[in-house]
Amino acid sequence: xxxxxxxxxxxxxxxxxxLLMATSCGSExxxxxxxxxxxxxxxxxxxxxxxxxxxxxxxxxxSDVSINASFQVSGTVLNVPVQIGDFVKKNQLIAQIxxxxxxxxxxxxxxxxxxxxxxxxxxNKVFQKGSVxxxxxxxxxxxxxxxxxxxxxxxxxxxxxxxxxxxxxYISDKMMDAGDLAQPGQPVVELVNIKTVKAVLxxxxxxxxxxxxxxxxxxxxxxxxxxxxxxxxxxxxIQSNQGSPVYTAYVKLNNAEKKIKPGMTCTVSFENNDSGNxxxxxxxxxxxxxxxxxxxxxxxxxxxxxxxxxxxxVETGKLYDGxxxxxxxxxxxxxxxxxxxxxxxxxxxxxxxxxSR
Length: 357
Fold this sequence. Notes:
The protein is built from 3 helices and 21 strands. It is of the alpha+beta class. Among the domains are: 36-51 and 278-356, conserved putative lor/sdh protein from methanococcus maripaludis s2 fold (Beta Barrel), CATH 2.40.420; 55-64 and 190-271, Efflux pump adaptor protein, beta barrel domain (Elongation Factor Tu (Ef-tu), domain 3); 99-160, Helix Hairpins, CATH 1.10.287.470. The strands form 4 sheets. Strands 2-15-19-18-17-16 form a 6-stranded antiparallel sheet, with no helix packed on it. Strands 3-10-13-12-11-14 form a 6-stranded antiparallel beta barrel. A 4-stranded antiparallel sheet has the order 7-6-4-9, with no helix packed on it.
């Protein structure tokens, strides 16, 4: 009887403990469920772009025309009477090799030409009198013409012993000096013309088709006190750079004062003609860090819906200085959560502490 009473007592205690635990868990679950996350929001549409907005790229200035001047014949360099930075005029002497051997060959060839000429004139006179076969006269004339051609060729070698500037420009590099052995085609100096220059820009493959030849660009050069100059796109590569999906665009710039130097960095902006849709709506720009990605590579953000967070799946577009464009999933007036979103799940209770309008 006593054991029976003890068992009944233990059973009652167990039931009470279970009820107490259930009540405690329910209270804790209710506490977690009702937890409110404080968030910052921004009104979607407060950061937009239109046809007057610009897309910026970073590039480098290069000379519009660059020539590696070289000899057409080999020889020992006698002198290179120019220095890096010098301005030279077209046809100005910029280098010379020892042309003694070419001068000697030319003199020898001139002597052979004179001999061939005298021989041809003598045989031709005899031929005119009918005292020699025509074939003899033709052979003599051929030998004379061959000697003339050889002399002209040797004269060109003499001329090529001196190297003249092929255009007006600056000496940007000097690869040889007196005493060096020059070979045909081996660069001696680099000559650049900077009356016009070009900004060279790497363009991602996703954006290369938004730029066309003839487009106007604004080029800012920080090293010249943020000098802003207008340029025109005159070249666009049709093949990406090796090993990366990046193309190259070239913006031509007038440089009459020659202040812009090759190697300077620049920022180039183009008019964004793709910002609006057919109805004239503005493209929505949001902070890129407010976008999360699911395991299956879907992008989403959180917006405020009443007093809770609502997950919205979005599609993204171009990158801008102020963030990334949203092409689908948001509309103007939505309250985008831009701070505290990493603590959120669907329907989490939220409290707005800062509204960035």
